[in-house]
Amino acid sequence: MPDLNRECGELAWSALLPHFARGAVIRVAPELDLIDVAHRFGNNDTAQVQAWLETAAVSRATDDDARRWNRVKPVFRAIVMAPWVLVQERAITNQGLHAC
What was the pLDDT predicted at 6? Predict the structure, then answer.
């Protein structure tokens, strides 16, 4: 498995649009660690992924998400775990944007 810390990067909503159009964008709740979620996807940890899906902590991006993202133009932390693109909206902290 690749070093996911190095694979994590920033993407603008405009860069995610093609992935959203093919249904591949997966939202990850801000309270989850994006790198951990990516590891679980990559290691086929179906029990944990299913638990997150059931609580909507991880979910496929919806049309409502896309409409909001079109309005607010967020920047995302993102990792590709083919065929999925796992994303979190970046949180603003007192020190600026939260890094991957």
Answer: 74
Cross-strand pairs, 78:
9, 87
Helix axis angle, 13-21 relative to 63-72, nearest 10°?
A: 160
How many independent structural domains does the chain possess?
Answer: 1
100 within some domain = no
Q: Parallel, antiparallel, or unpaired for β 75-81 and 58-60? A: unpaired
Give 66's contacts (C-beta < 8 A, 6+ positions apart).
20
Strands (DSSP E) contained in 1-100 are 9-12, 25-28, 58-60, 75-81, 84-89, 92-93, 96-97
Helix, strand or coil, per DSSP, at residue 24: coil
Q: 7 falls in which pLDDT band (50, 70, 90)? A: confident
Domain of 28, in residue numbers: 4-92
Does 13 map to a domain? yes
DSSP letter (8 states) at residue 57: S
